[in-house]
User: Fold this.
Amino acid sequence: MAAKLIADILVVIHFIFIVFVVLGGFLVFKKRWVSILHIPSVLWAALLEINGWLCPLTPLEHYFRQLSGSSDYTGGFIDHYLVAIIYPEGLTREMQITLGFIVLGINLVIYALVFGKRSPGKKSSTGAEDPE
Assistant:
């Protein structure tokens, strides 16, 4: 029972990480320090997808599933919804590469918006303070 719970927790952590990678740049609008965590996460996730590497959470989750005696993904909310999102059927190598570049593209746009936005009181290129 504990092994299945650990496997389920790993799936939830995996899903949260994926959401953070794809949409975490929006947190940078409010808290710029989040970029210190977000940028390496995006780069890691993109490298995983583009190079076809396996996320370390995946074999760990499979290990605990096998330890619990269930190697399949049947039953429960986590198994039915999250696992299907994290490990979609029919995922090809080309799709993985595309997903990696989509993640990079989404985040480049988000960061361009975040850091392209002028803060109040910032000086313009002429050296004068910009009125807001």
In short: The mean pLDDT is 82. Residues 2-116 form one domain.
